[in-house]
Amino acid sequence: QVQLVESGGGLVQAGESLTLSCAASGSIFSASSMAWYRQAPEKQRELVATIFRDGITNYADSVKGRFTISRDNAKNTVYLQMNSLKPEDTAVYYCRLLTPNYFISWGRGTQVTVSS
Prior knowledge:
By secondary structure, the protein is mainly β. The chain is 0% helix and 52% strand. It has no helices and eleven strands. The strands form two sheets. Strands 2, 4, 5, 6, 9, 10 and 11 form a seven-stranded mixed beta sheet that branches. A hairpin with a 4-residue loop joins strand 7 and strand 8 (77-82). It is globular, with a radius of gyration of 13 Å.
């Protein structure tokens, strides 16, 4: 079973930046698509960004131009660079892995809090 461990969350002020990391165990990482989701209090979990195994990326409209997802297959790690953070970006951020045969793994999440 693949394990995912997120890191890099914290408390920042509006306009600042953070970079989240998600390290995966096992050898399936390079063949998998990776994504970042977030869940704010009393809201549904929402997709933030996806990066496919070929490097193609997709973003939620709310983060386009501010967030960048990237991956390092040699390190089994996916990143989320978050710039110009806003209070509405406050949430628990989760990493998700999707294998070619549609097996899904989730991390436990990392808290991001943006103060105004």
